[in-house]
Fold each of these.
Amino acid sequence: MSDRTEFRRLLLTGAAGGLGKVLRAGLKPLTRTLRVSDKAELGPAGPEEEVVPCDLADKAAVHSLVAGVDAVVHFGGVSVETHFEPILQSNIVGLFNMYEAVRKHGVRRVVFASSNHVTGFYRQSEKIDVDAPVRPDGLYGVSKCFGENLSRFYYDRYAIETVCLRIGSSFPAVKDRRMLATFLSYNDLVELVHRSLLTPRVGHSIIFGASDNAVKWWDNAKAAHIGFAPRDSSDPQRERVEAACPPLDPSDPAGVYQGGAFVRAGPFDD
Ligand code: NAI
Ligand code: 15L
């Protein structure tokens, strides 16, 4: 992990969330000031921090939020499959507000928390790379496809660089058999975000976020320029997880597709 202070001011959205809390600590070495934002409670500002509450769906608030930052680490938004309305407001309207603010304020780079659920309808027996057509496994996955496409447009039209991180499952520990393939340790997450911020030229890049797990569904060869080399692995947790979690019934789609239980969520708008 780098300990260089490269940025004057970085913005972290979603800072009250599970990964936001990890990055709130993990981004400090890279920046003189870390501006943290969320619509949920963020607590008091720590040293060299600015706390700026903001609902991403509020255009004016997002435009103020982005003023004066060098780069954005955008982790705010709905993070699970649910009804369309909250996804629409946070992940679609909210992301558009963010990119418009980034454009207007001349910010040059965004790190966007995409998700493995943009390709959740590939089978667990398949290995894919970033050129595989998207196969979202729900409305949440569709909203992350929107984010990947919106950021592509802002790069082609305005040369704003984005790294889209198709994060697997980033939690303190492996919770089930699927996560033996999708696990991204917190240390590897922080390293991935550091690489996404520090690599000199990223253009519009998409990279899968997984640790060096023995079972691999994703090939990151086309994102080698990011220089991400995960150090952790789910493997030391395999024995515990296999003992605790019996295999799923072979006919259960959650055990067939990469998106796991997300593929059987919904419908939500009946
Ligand atoms: P989380 O749900 O714990 O955190 C998301 C944060 O975004 C929350 O604090 C929430 O208050 C905030 N938020 C939601 N809507 C907002 C809005 N309209 N305005 C302002 N803030 C809003 O989720 P987690 O696990 O920390 O994930 C962070 C990001 O990474 C999310 O974008 C998620 O989709 C993505 N991701 C996470 C994965 C994981 O394994 N944890 C896997 C793949 C993607
Ligand atoms: C995600 O995109 C979610 O944000 C996270 O909560 C997990 O469900 C993760 O994917 C996963 O696939 O395990």
Note: The pocket of NAI (ligand 1) is lined by residues 14, 16-20, 38-40, 55-57, 75-79, 89-90, 94, 113, 115, 167, 169-170 (CB under 6 Å).
Amino acid sequence: MSHTFSRRSAMRLLGGAVAVAAAATGTGAVAPAHAAGEGRPEAGAGRRVESLIAELTLDEKISLLHGATDPDSLGQAGYVPGVPRLSIPPLRLADGPAGVRVTEHATALPAPVLLASAFDPDLARRFGQVIGREGRALGQDVLLSPMVNLIRTPYGGRNFETFGEDPLLAGDLVAAEIRGIQGEGLIATVKHFAMNNQEKDRMSVDVRVDEQTMHEVELRGFEAAVDAGTGAVMGAYNKVNGTFACENRDLLTDILRTRWGFGGWVMTDWFAAHSTAAALAAGLDMEMPDGTWFGTALKNAVRDGSVPERHVDRAVRRVLAMMDRFGLLDGTAPPRPARDAGAGAAVALEVAKAGATLLRNEHDALPLTGAAARSIAVVGPTGTLPFVSGGGSAHVVPDRVESPLDAIRSRAGRGARVTYALGEDLYGKPIPQGALGRGINTEAQGVAAGKTWTYEGSLTVADADEWTFVIHYSGERPRVLLDGQDLFPVLPGVGEYFQGGLISAAPDGLSVRRKALTLAKGAHRVEITAKGGDHGQLFRLRRSTGVTRAQDVAEAVRAARAAHSVVLFAYEDATEGQDRTTIALPGHQVRLIEAVAAANPRTTVVLNTSSSTSMPWLARTAAVLQMYYPGQEGAAATAAVLFGDCDPGGRLTQSFPVDDAHHPVAGDPLRYPGGDGVEEYSERIQVGHRWYDAEDVRPLFPFGHGLSYTSFAYEGLRVREDRRGLAVSFTVHNSGRRDGIEVAQVYVGRSPDLRLDQAVRVLGGYRRLALRAGERRRVTVTVTGRTLSSWDAERHAWVLGTGRRTVWVGSSSRDLRLRTTAEVTS
Ligand code: BGC
């Protein structure tokens, strides 16, 4: 069967190449945006803005182009003072991707990677609405989100803040979320433009990437954000092809403004500016969070003539035009609403359930029903320590937290027996009396304000063992030397902020650091110095050892044996500023899972991890549920999925590799983390699932994978010509006995006519479907002209991939149920 696709009318000729209209980027149906969220304002900046520019002094103009200290800070990341004499209000800029990050409580939404797993642009819009409303309610004007960089490496420390590895899906979701945010009157900032795919050396690494790859992979989401009317763009820390992103003319002017028509303003990432005249000329408008380059230096440069004042005016115009569009200059912005914590919590819960991704479910181990629901052992430190969000600028002060154990107990009900075993101790146990000399209270050593406390003594170890020293402290980090080795050094340039996420704080709020090492039998010299600082100091010195760990595992095994089923919570703690070094679960969790699953094969592992994980233990478990960082309602959502109150609605938006040796950046240090400060995008367009197909490597779980509690059959695939591209129609049948969710996915193969790099197949579109037991639904998914096109670097344009192309429909990139071909013509 073949079909002809003709799009001549929707195309324009650019430099001899066929370019597909930029609007044709998405597949998801998104509701119309609020007027404030749409449009490209620069052209119509208007008289108000021009007359303000005419009245502003140079100092005032410059004050609008860089951050400053907020005299009335609400704990947000950035502040730009206004010009009161001209009624230009200040701007407050807050993170972030999973909720508004200020000192106050806010709705802690699930991490974006979990939102993305729902494959549901409308849900992304409502997620954005919650943040938009709360941002305004909490005194903010600009949101530093969404992040649309793609997952390129499984090690990326911010993978949880992304929408995954696929450009089409990320583009749809970012556009929908921006419409949601801006529809509430908060200005969105899409970040980090561009190629910020790793945290390792993020401040300096030079990403070498070719033009085709940039346009087809990473830039697609940014372009979708511009089409959706994003008010601001944040430049990335890294360099792109030799030039820092924040002073990269190709990115900031040629692509962003000339090609895409962006009319908002570009700000730096925090401390990502590197120059004055060059950056301003290249298209940067605002330095954050201070004025190192765009403060006095800019004023001097204008004075001495090295920066033309019209460049300053241009940047000011872009900022003011956007403020004007949001009604901030003439007082027409809607009044700040009150927070609606209830509505926020409802969306947080809905998203966590919708994105819950069931990776494995042998013999219908889930949902827990009957005996399995009445006798449960909950195991793992994160069973009682809820992983609400990742660390760094994505962290939100949640309205509430509930532990998974409590949620499981309350869902299981009175008649059920739910026990708990720690399994792995993250905070260490007290060092036994006698092992350390007298004069130190390792459980609560207090140091008065302004005092320095020191201890010198010896630690006696009865048998050689693997020790993990753990310090808990308030204030300045105490110095602990063991046989002269500094166990917890404060590294230059690495702030406390980027030292781990959730488990870097004890349940009572003290900071926590860990150091593992092998200790020989005998006496070891210990020296500790702690400074009281202004507020005094409290610290605890604890440890776990091979012996204590074995006791913890043995207790978990006993609990597992005594219960009918086990729910084991496994974690991985991610934060911006650092990458992972392995995709294996951290700590001693692998051993714990293996021991517990051996004791009770009805073990479900719930993963609160940032990204993909290897699972050498997979075959021994009954079920694996991926929840990432599920937000403040995550425990309730997890319990709802485990007990079958809802279908697990999520599908993977990233391929899970089998191990550290089989993924797109494995074994090539130039690709990742880069050599001599250069990161080579040598896999080119084969990012994510495309790489697994191109290299014929089997992932542990493919892109798009995720199980339902029911089953689905596909039938009746037809492809026909459509105004926007290929209209792919098929029927999905819920062939099981329960209502459930399916995410039907359309993939498209190569064009025989293009002599450009192409993927074996690209995601062409998708549809999330809620089907009752037995229900059949006919759906049509449009594959847009843009998706059928490749970027021709010689012509600097999109070229339609004509000819006979294969179209597949299925429930993951490797579970392709139906196949046909379609003829694409220009
Ligand atoms: C992060 C940004 C964030 C900013 C402000 C930076 O370190 O990279 O994503 O918006 O800090 O908190």
Note: The first strand starts at residue 4 and ends at 6.
Amino acid sequence: MLHARLIVDHTATRIPLDRRIFGSFVEHLGRAVYDGIYEPAHPTADGAGFRRDVIDLVTELGVTTIRYPGGNFVSGFRWEDSVGPREQRPTRLDLAWHSRETNEVGLHEFADWLERVDSDLMLAVNLGTRGTLEALDLLEYANLESGTALAELRTSNGRERPFGARMWCLGNEMDGPWQIGHRSADDYGKLAAQTARAMRMVDPELELVVCGSSSWSMPTFGEWERVVLGHTYDDVDFISCHAYYEERDGDLTSFLASAVDMDAFIDQVVATIDHVKAVKRSDHVVNISFDEWNVWYNDRFENVDKITGAQNWPVAPRLLEDVYTVADAVVVGNLLISMLRHADRVRSASLAQLVNVIAPIMTEPGGPAWRQTTFFPFALTSRFARGSVVPSRVESPQHATRAYGDVLTVDAVTTLDEATGRLSVFAVNRSQTDSVELTVTMPPRGTRSPFTHVDSWTLNDSDPHATNTLDAPERIRPKENTSASLRGEEIVVTLPPVSWTVVVADH
Ligand code: AHR
């Protein structure tokens, strides 16, 4: 058994947690919408065609904000197609995913569904093939109460009350050569600045997200952020980060340490934001919207699933339906730990995505919906990470990785809910061989722990590649970790190999 210590500094300034960090993402891609959240013929479907079993799982997941409608999809999207009488909505080609979009579900239907899952709308505008005017039109249609052509059109389309979207993404991954309308940082920065200023003329209270790099492995990373923020700094509130991780070439050791990469990525984007702030002598603070993050076996998509053919445009094909393992769930839990640790600057995030497409929730047409392994760390972190993040330090054994050199075997973060006094500790053990006894110390030493009770749940399995599937949907679930206890002023818990754990301490 190895030993690690988490030293929680109650004297340090706490970081208030923005619950938008527990956001997600629904793109018109594969079976995310059709045969995912929406399946009118399903036995659980409600009057509007939405699957109630999926609504229940999304609610259980604890998602606060949902980014919509893309993703790469948005760069070919005409929002007008997705509103108005359904029988008049056109079917279009979706070039991003080589599919056909029927527009049966559009802005109105999606907003109605969001009310069912108690989540807020985060809308993306198309700055790939469209521009400022179309973004303004969508804003007017979505948010203006009445008195203009587009506000009245919304009312005549059945929705008097505006959608009231507060967060808006100024395009998607505009640095990526795969993006329709891909631009240089300079061209995109100018377009984003013009669009942001115009949108703020409609409503200065909007929160605007400018596109950062689609990954920090992009050759333009860093310079892209500097140039784009050079154009937009005082007109936006967030710059986006996107990161996907996967186990490559059987290197589970490096994969389990993916959060080391996310930590460094966030630090570098923050440094670039603050460099631009300094150059501009600005008082304004730009934060990070980590609006795409997850494990994604992208190689599988590129080499197996990709759809081609000039006459082959399926509706809602099975795309990006990754089946997640216990190890994937441990990485997802650790990525959340990384973002919580950076909660001073990561003020919004979107797990990409939500249903069927690289998703914590899977569905079968006419059949069940179930939780993937990655569902659990997200749901439990969203449930128990309340209040503030309390700065802490991990003292842990280290081990070697091919991708990141020596890494801490244990990573952890702590939140304190000031309203209830509850302390929550989220921890991973990245070792494949050793259990680790984690001791949580709360200085000042020598005083008794104020807590009287601890509960803990751990996600692990003797097979780190075990999954939940249609045939065995409950193979993996978090189990109560009975090793968690109060020992004097400290909390002690045993973390099995390749595991994610939450410990909750109450008065
Ligand atoms: O989430 C899947 C895709 O990943 C999104 O459409 C795109 O923005 C990113 O490359």
Note: The chain has a mean pLDDT of 96.
Amino acid sequence: MIRITVWNEYKHERELEEIKKIYPKGIHECIREFLEEEGFQVRTAVFSMEEHGLTEEVLEHTDVLIFWSHALQEEFSSEVASRVQRHVQEGMGLIALHSAHFSKIMKELLGTSMTLKWRHGDRERLWCIAPSHPIAQGIDESIEIPQEEMYGEYFDIPKPDEVVFAGWFSGGEVFRSGCTFTRGLGKIFYFQPGHEEYPIYYIPQIQKIIKNAVRWCAPSHRERKVLDCQEIRISPEEKRRKTGGEK
Ligand code: ZN
């Protein structure tokens, strides 16, 4: 069974009434509910917990980390960010949602400024532009998001492995809204929808994309390892000769 940790900053939903109305128990609990319905094993963690709830032990038992952050990016512990980065490099999957593009975790993993353009109060049509990708299975050609914050290009990311979704906004901007990356043994999916002022994580097709992404970025093998430089003293061919592999 895939073991997921849903991490949320959990600040706006506690402090702002209009956002509390949309996510009474926080974005993390909304995401937990639809993932549990799918049969995944889910735990949650939030910023206020010790070590932000992302201890070595929690990460060791996490196949996929889902991460939503916004207002506390700078306050997030650099030590914890480096720990998450290492776990991704060792094979843990990472799904970074919406404003988490600007998290220390994503900046460290991807190495670019992660800057973009934004504007409140727009409407998005999310286009699936890689229909054969596992994350796109069962997803319509396009998804209407009636209210969303505009995120626009240029989005300063390294060249993605795949761009699975492209967002079009009614103001005219476009955005690479669903991108995959690989770092070490870990798979990363960045997914733009999910501004906290709108009930975006209740949209069934958005939930389906996140469920697909969990399956896609879960490590295929449980044993994680650090990729390291190795000196090879005996070449594979030499080994083959010694074991009598060559006639
Ligand atoms: Zn936002």
Note: The CA atoms of residues 56 and 83 lie 7 Å apart.
